[in-house]
Write a structure and sequence with these properties.
Layout (H helix, E strand, L loop, with lengths): L2 H4 L9 H23 L5 H24 L2 E5 L5 E5 L3 H27 L1 H12 L3 H10 L3 H13 L1
Antiparallel strand pairs: 1-2
Keywords: Membrane, Transmembrane, Transmembrane helix
Length: 157
């Protein structure tokens, strides 16, 4: 038994022009509905959708934080909660160490380039300046680390 015979009134093949009209009608109706929501007439579905999106963003943020490590804690109701572990020392210490290393490397390269006499002459000029220059002279003063790095840089250059 053929499909068309089982359901009289239905063609075996739908008319392609009817499908395109259906699609166009669907797109136009969807546009009217979406447009109505954005013109200030908020519905309960809009409010529920916004609430859902906010909860989803909050959950995604929590999952990103938990991905870097978490600690299990028992709350006051006896429920086990996953809390992100806080490893602030690693995050704050590494950039500081890198900054200090670059500072000492800069001082060593400057000492190597100028030489001891000119470097000390520049420091003496800074020490007689205003407060900012005096602080700069104190920071740029010779120390064992700078001297050691300058000796290594002089051998390499």
């Amino acid at each position: 038994m053929d499909h068309a015979d089982a359901h009289p009134g239905l063609d075996a093949r739908p008319d392609p022009s009817d499908l395109s009209k259906f699609r166009l009608n669907l797109i136009l109706n969807a546009g009217v509905q979406v447009g109505a929501c954005h013109r200030g007439t908020s519905s309960a579905m809009d409010t529920a959708h916004k609430s859902f999106i906010q909860r989803q963003k909050k959950l995604n943020k929590k999952h990103r934080r938990l991905a870097s490590g978490y600690v299990n804690r028992l709350n006051e109701n006896g429920v086990i909660e996953h809390r992100p572990s806080r490893d602030y020392l690693r995050l704050t210490l590494a950039p500081f160490v890198i900054l200090v290393a670059f500072f000492f490397a800069f001082k060593a390269l400057l000492l190597t380039h100028l030489g001891d006499a000119d470097y000390l002459a520049h420091l003496a000029a800074l020490e007689t300046g205003n407060l900012t220059e005096q602080v700069g002279a104190r920071l740029m003063s010779l120390d064992p680390v700078t001297q050691f790095l300058a000796d290594i840089a002089a051998q390499l250059i």
